[in-house]
Amino acid sequence: MKAKLLFLCLCLVWNGWAETFTPYRPDALKKGDWLIFESVLYYPYVAPGIKEEIPWRAENIRRIIIRATVTDRTKKSLSIDYTLENLYDCHNDKDKHGFYYFDSRYQQDFAFEDNTLEKHLACVTYDRENGSVLTLDKANLSCSYSKTYVPFGVRQAGLSAPVASIRNSVNLNPILTQIANGFLTGWKKDGTIQLTPDTRIIDASFALPPNTEFTVSNFSFDASKDSTVHKKIFIAYLTEYKVGERVTLLLTPGDSIIQDKELYGKTHNMRYEGKGSEQNNFQYSCRRVTNIHGSDIFHFDLNSPNEIREAFQSRDFLLQATLEKEFKNMDTYWRKVFERSEQYFRGMLVLIRYMKATDKDIWQKSGLLDWQAPYFASVNPLIDLAYNTRKPDAASYYSFLYRYSLYKKQELKSDNLCLNKEKELTPQENYLLNKQIFSGFPQYVVNGASLQYIMFDNMLSEIEEDYNEFISSCPDTSLTNTLATTYNKLLPFEVGKNIQESGLMITDNLHLVKGSDRKYILLFLSTWDGLPAPDLQNAINLKQHLESEGLASIVKLELYSKFSSHNAKRVKPYKAISDQQIEDFKTKLGPGAMTILMREDGTILYRRFGYWDFNPKPILGLVQKDLDRVDESMNDFKKGFKEGVLGSLLIAVIIGIFYYFRAKSKRKQERNRRHISELKLRAIRSQMNPHFIFNALSSIQNLINRSANEEANKYLIDFSRLLRKVLATSEKKLVSLSDEIEQIELYLKLEQLRYPFVYSLTVDKSIEPDVIEIPGMLIQPFVENAVKHGIAPRGTGEITIRLSLQNQLLVIDITDDGPGLKTDTNGGFGIRAVTNEFEILKTLYNTEIGITIENRQDKEAVSGCHIRLSIPL
């Protein structure tokens, strides 16, 4: 009965979703739209021990990815370019325990012989009325490549690809012909495109018809924010899908999952029902079954080989018994994911214990380090990314790669030919060695993690070359995006930057002194709850060290941590940090700790992230070095002053006479220049007002054409009010902020008659709009741009406008949730005019108005455009 009720609820939810999804039609295609097709060839399994029933796999398959991009559109025709995005080919060897592998994304290891990657394949022109092909201009549609033989397992040659290979080729003509001919004719009313059983769409620049649904609870770290999430989404492959902060679903296309929220409320156990529930129930019961997430055998001191072997046997019995008894109907792919993850976990644990062992011979004799053991011999790191979960507490694949790299480096240092065996490898040496140990994705994931680690302990300038090389060569955007995000977060804390530019709220507590470069602040900031005893002891020792070295008056300690305010006196010299400042730090840099040495004016000399477990001498050495630099420059100045004082006086007299006669002429030129600038400013505003009025009249015309007379009348009334406002302020050099805000709100209310979007306009309490004056019509063009580019293409959306005060700047943030601006977009007339106005205002008032325009998807998980104006007050 309960299952029937759940199914009924599922149907009701699906009906609601079906009404909200609007299929994308061929008539809606515009220039720049794109779709990605996948054509798959399955090889028959011929290797021993491999089963046929895996529905989706990374072995014995050839996968060809083709991108179709709309390049032109007329009233009667549509032109589309087809290019080859990727070719993946993996085939088991029937005689040897290994496979032949090729992936065009990693060209440095597996190169096309004729450089076909991203090659233009064809340009096709279609009849828009019936979808038939009018013209088909094909390029050379054959390509050759070499598949490299890779044995199962790891050990002898690391994970880099051996040289043995076989030649292969593929003719793309029949694949492209099927895609091109069925592209428009196979487009159904529900938005699906039916081609052949082996060819399908896997991604597009627009929403694809949903194929997977779920109803789950979004459990937040803040219980008050818990909610129920109903979604129907499109996924191309079996994948992980993060729901909120604490829930990750394992999804297969076609799944329909419902969570038992009542059970969670009573027991805090997660249980799911419906298609796809098996793998999700198993992943949240692993802790109960084998403790895979935070395993006992990982944390306990099981150091002897016999203890590890017994723990493995116990784990294996529990794991297999649970799979057979409770999860025997689990999808074969997900079962392989869990089994493969277990092998990586065991291999990682053996390597950890072996590297820590003092008696290596016992481990060698135990057989645990046998490279034919399943946890070493049955894994395939080059392709096992396809069978890996990315959850931090279950990412055994990534942990194994990291431990394996450490093992190989330890092995290298133990070689008799290796010099400086006791010397630790530098981060840069680790980075370069990873390139020799790994190939393909394993190399990039390990080196990406290594660079991220280096960034936290070193200045970005020290790794600039390695960072740029990684970003330009890594084809996996998930890795490059993660690294670029960290890089951008750390950039404001580089040597020579001022901490005030970072925007951290904690800077308000530092009492920086402008122009002071002979005194220093040592800042340590921790977001962890409580204060570790070693950190407190380090602070006390450092304070005593500063006093003994006579530097206490030069270096000021500013140490903050998170603890109750009533404990502030007990943990001196630390100070309690507010929750708001903690959240600000976490938002900008993530949870953790940071040490920064800066001059008293905020200029950064050193920074490091992580626990405060350091020797104070290097930091104090930086202080002394900086003091020496300042002293040296002062000595040079004094010496130069003494030697050149007479000559300087003589030159000063001559220059004074010259400038006396020139000053009158310059003052006259300056008056003329300012007058011309004022005329230019008036000319720009006189152009902007008609431009703005024309756009408003276009909106009225649109309503009249749709016979929306009542809305048109309302529009005209509001428009007349707005027009009077614009004309009243058009001759003024500066207008009050309250007038500008009123004009913006009138404009947005008018545009809401055309599009059903929502907006919010908030002004910080610290701002007095009636007192502050700004140049007129300064903000409105950017708001109009948000409507034009963010709202109009979809007919709906949200615009957010926020005004705040930051460091004597009036900051206006304007965001929308539209598609964002293209890189070649220069904005409309209004934005170009305002940009020119900025230059004139700079000349007139010696003030510079800052402006940044960026796509939100570059830094956030949502699309849209973010415009920030900074006006000095």
Question: Uncertain runs with pLDDT below 50, 5 residues or more?
Answer: 1-19, 157-162, 288-299, 675-688
Distance linking N and C termini: 68 Å
| Number of DSSP-assigned strands | 27
Tell me what portion of residues adopts beta-strand conformation: 15-25%
Let me know the largest β-sheet. Answer: 9 strands, antiparallel
Helix content: 40-55%
Quick check: average pLDDT? 78
Shape: globular
How many distinct helices?
22
- The radius of gyration is 33 Å
Structural class: alpha+beta
Q: Tags for this entry?
A:
873 residues, 22% strand, five-stranded mixed beta sheet, nine-stranded antiparallel beta sheet, disordered N terminus, globular, 42% helix, alpha+beta
How would you characterize this protein structure?
By secondary structure, the protein is an alpha+beta fold. Helices cover 42% and strands 22% of the residues. It has 22 helices and 27 strands. Strands 1, 2, 3, 4, 5, 6, 7, 8 and 9 form a nine-stranded antiparallel beta sheet that branches. A five-stranded mixed beta sheet has the order 18-17-16-19-20, sandwiched between helices. Strands 22-24-25-27-26 form a five-stranded mixed beta sheet, with helices on one face. Helix 18 (616-705) packs across helix 22 (829-845). The longest helix is centred in the last third of the chain and has 90 residues, at 616-705. The radius of gyration is 33 Å and the shape is globular. Residues 1-19, 157-162, 288-299 and 675-688 have low confidence and may be disordered.
